[in-house]
Amino acid sequence: MTRKRLCFFLLLPLIFSHCKAKETLYIGGLFGIDTSGGGWNSAGTIPAIQMAIDEINNNTEILKDYHLQLLIKDSKCNVGEAVRGTLEYISSGKPKIMFLGPGCSKATMPVAEAIHYWNIVQIGFSNSSPLLSSKAVFPLYFRTNPSERFTNLGRIAILRRFNWKKVAIMQQNNDVFTGISNSLVDLLSAANITVLAYESFKDHPRFALENLKRKDARIIFAFFYPDEHYITFCETPQELYAEYLERLKNSGYSENTFASYGYDAAWTCALTLNASIDVLGKQNFKLNEFNYSHPNMSKVFVDIMKRISFAGMSGQVKFDSGKVPVDGLRIEEKLEGVDPGVLWFVIAVSILGVLMAIGFLIFNLELWIVMIGFSLGFGAMFSKTWRVHVIFLNTKTTKRVIIRDRQLFSMVAVLLLIDVIILVTWQIVDPLTSKVENLTLQVTLEDDTGIQPYITMCTCENITIWLACIYVFKGLLLLFGAYLAWETRKVHILALNDSKLIGLSLYNVIIPCILVIPILGVVADQPTIHFSLSSFLTIFCTSFTLSLVFVPKIMFLRTADGNSVSTATKSATATGSTIEGGQMSSKRLFFFLLLPLIFSHCKAKKTLYIGGLFGIDTSGGGWNSAGIIPAVQMAIDEINNSTEILKDYHLQLLIKDSQCNVGEAVRRTLEYISSGRPKIMFLSPGCSKAAMPVAEAIHYWNIVQIGFSNSSPLLSSKAVFPLYFRTNPSEKFSNLGRIAILRRFNWKKVAILQQNNDVFTGISNSLIDMLGATNITVLAYESFKDHPKIAIENLKRKDARIIFAFFYQDQHYITFCEAFKKGMYGPKYVWILFSGRLQDNWWKVQSPLVDCTPEEVRKGLSNNIGTAELKLSPVSGPTKFGKTPQELYTEYLERLNNSGYSENTFASYGYDAAWTCALTLNASINVLEKQNFKLNEFNYSLPNVSKVFVDIMKRISFAGMTGQVKFDSNHDRNTQRRVAFYDMEKDTLEEDSNSVYLWDGGKVPVDGLRIEEKLEGVDPGVLWFVIAVSILGVLMAIAFLIFNVYNQNISWLHTYLRGGCTVRLRQRARKLFLELWIAMIGFSLGFGAMFSKTWRVHVIFLNAKTTKRIVDPLTNKVENLTLQVSQEDDTGIQPYVTKCTCENIMIWLPCIYLYKGLLLLFGAYLAWETRKVHIPALNDSKLIGSSVYNVIIPCILVFPILGVVADRPTIHFSLSSFLTIFCTSFTLSLVFVPKVDPASASKTKEENARETEE
């Protein structure tokens, strides 16, 4: 048994070497699982990723010493949830070495834009937006699925395949689709394919479809939800996919197109980590030691991932360089800091100097305390020398001079007081600020990239003056010290006199400064050298002075008699008087009795922290809101100094720079939440695009957020941003003011031109809804990415005159330069600008973006109306806080001058936002006390507290710097806004009495050609003349009818003839299809009577006409004639005529003409055949021939003319009436007049015969 145990224990090391526990590496997964609120569901990719993770963990060659564990959080395809999940991953548990997901692009972008600050590599598997290809914005983001940029290449290949050269794009307003469309536009331009239209829409594509139809767009790229289509360029291995489907059945999720890409993403992660083991091992680092402060580690991952290549489930997995053709030099800023080696060396030397000073302090405590004063050195030395000078060189008195240590302290205190006065005055009058100064640009021509080095300098506006004052003061002090040293040079008491040492110290300070300070000015742009020289100067001077003063004293005290030294010292510093102990005791007793009263008035206030996010450094692009900070701080100071607001609390504003950038805003928000004391409220980022992801996520931590310059209408959605308020008006209300302008000038037709941006898209969509509700026509809705050339051409083509322009200031130069080039300027154009963020007279600055002069840009701007926020309340009375808005703004400007920031239009809204926060917190104190809660106990897990804040803020109302501050149901500011004066509550536009509109051309432009429709009818005189003649013809036909009835022996066929002619005469008064029926029936009755043998054809014809009426009915159609335009006043008359027509009129009329022509030919044939029958009562052949001639010749002459004058109703009516009346009347007369005489003669003979018979 003993041997077995011994053998077992000997084998233990071998067993443990094989059973070594693996270290766990955590991967943070974000998937859209519950997407019931909208968005794309990526839960179906989880089984594929877990399958890959299991294969990796079971593999003996990949990550042998590590175990991968996939963590899963639901991002819901929602920005807020994705940001929340990211923060939870980062702030809790073990570090996550990599991230997978989220599933949809819109949730991925803010995460990828912020996550690189924690040095985490992120791998996407179903994010196709081309925007994610930007390495400047998403430096640590990779994806295993193809970008839509490459899909766009496939789309262009389709166009080439079918030789399509003209296309259009229609997209739903969405960051993803906008990115796809913009990428496609660039590629189409490079391929010389024309983009006829680029239309976007929010909820309904009605306007977009109308524009596409108007532009005759045939080939249309369509990007919108819910029918997303993906092009797959590779096949998946069937075995792996079959295994995925088996796992899918057990997961409860639905099959997902991107599952194979998720599988490959997991393997990409594992292979990257595996390949990094050796690299990191050389740096003495292991994967399980990963944390968020190792940028070198993420750099290793990125370098490996760029080179990775393997056969995955979706094909060969490898990544491009991330480089796309650039449009110019890409400049990356780089902070030129101090070399770490030099820094640590200086720190080490400084520590040695401090230790040396501490040693000397321990050696001679009394003398060291006396030396504490000005600059911890020279003040003490000079005061001590001054004492020697007074004691030993004062010849004016013979009395004993006693100078105590406290007198020396007083001298040093005076020097310190002078220092304090200078520094405090400096800070108040001209405070120091951090200034960024760019150094020489470092360019790499190979890849068109550049690094812009910059340094930060602590400076102010008048720093030269302040430094000169300090140098003069210190120089005078040094000169005074030199004078004292010179005067006391002959006092030979070493323990008392430091004159020689002071002289050497002065030399030690002045000479190095004279040598080094000029060099520091030369090397100001080289931080390492500058820091090294300045540190050397400081350390050398202080260490040398300390050594020079104290080393000789140490040597002296070791060799001399300590008692004699002590005696000599005491004789020079003995006190001349004493203080009675009883008096001191009574004073101390009185002091302690007063302590409770003092502490009762000095009760410490509890600090409440407000997280402020402002766009300060916006050199990377975006709107700067730093100028609002002084106004907010001014309000905070007033609140803290108030005895009525938050009496037991002290507000402290924390400031972080969001840079008007989504990633920075998310990063700073996470820093606020994850570190320090809880922030009870947030004052939001200055620009809307940075505010939206913060507002969408922050409610998960129950933090109320107050905006002061975010105008996007999208932020009004309480479903998405439930805890967001804003003191500035939403652009939704600005749009009401814009519509009031349209009503003021009676403009009914407008156009919209916007830059592709979420903020401007939200404004445009809100405006379109309001325009539709007020029956104002939107002629065009054009958007653009970089250049508005196509959009300007479309606006000009549609004759848009009143144009809403929504874009950033740099695009104003480009847009109005292009308008000038296209000739789209002059008195008939009006641009309604988004001018709240524009500088005054912005066009007067020559922009490098355009080749137009400022004068040409101004000319392209034509007439313009700017809409902007009210800077101050229009009410002149005092605000709630006692001062008028004008007085507050004057105080703001004073603070602004000391801040180094630029004036900001929204400063007054920032002031009101701070007071809104304070008044809400103050009103909540009593409510929360009833719940046994105090404001300083706030934390992020208290939804009831945020609910209290929201309920109070909804009801809040006070007179602020910008007017009456109150909120509507969407938490938007409800107040006045000035265009002239637009009152949002009354929906009225009130102009000042001195308002003057200076229109180019001297008159109000119109919104387009004012067209008045005019029906071109028949001249009344001609109409009544034709009616009169027609009546005479009808009377003539009736007379012939009576004649025919009276003379019974005349053929009944003549009755038909008269009826046909009568009907033809009556047709002139008929309209629409009756005219055609009357003409055809009259023709058939008239000529059918003469051609009696054609009666069967007549019956067949009537049946044919009935068929036409049923199959293709005649309708009344309006046809516009030539527009008559007056250029002077932009008015026009649109003449139009009404026609009776049908869809196949050109088929039916030839059929009728052919049929009637055959009838005429048949009649002519009969007349020709019976021409030799000489019985006048029976034979009408000659009359038939004359009638046919009477019809054919006029028709041949008149019909072509009728086609030419179809747009002249009077002439057309006159000719057609003449043709009808002439033919029918001539035919009646030709047939009946010759029969009148024979009929009368026959009647006379019959009467005579009857009389004879009687």
Automatic annotation (TrEMBL):
Keyword Transmembrane applies: yes
Domain spans labelled G-protein coupled receptors family 3 profile: 365-573, 1110-1236
Entry's Gene Ontology cellular component terms: G protein-coupled receptor heterodimeric complex; postsynaptic membrane
Topology in the lipid bilayer: Multi-pass membrane protein
One GO BP: gamma-aminobutyric acid signaling pathway
Molecular function terms from GO: G protein-coupled GABA receptor activity
Domain of life where this protein originates: Eukaryota
Signal peptide: 1-21
One Pfam family matching this protein: 7tm_3
Keywords in alphabetical order: Cell membrane, Coiled coil, Disulfide bond, G-protein coupled receptor, Glycoprotein, Membrane, Phosphoprotein, Postsynaptic cell membrane, Receptor, Signal, Synapse, Transducer, Transmembrane, Transmembrane helix
Compartments (UniProt record): Postsynaptic cell membrane
Annotated transmembrane regions: 342-362, 368-387, 408-429, 463-486, 506-523, 529-551, 589-609, 1022-1046, 1072-1091, 1145-1168, 1188-1205, 1211-1233
Chief subcellular location: membrane
Family of this protein: Belongs to the G-protein coupled receptor 3 family. GABA-B receptor subfamily.
Protein name from the UniProt record: Gamma-aminobutyric acid type B receptor subunit 2
Source organism of the structure: Pocillopora damicornis (Cauliflower coral)
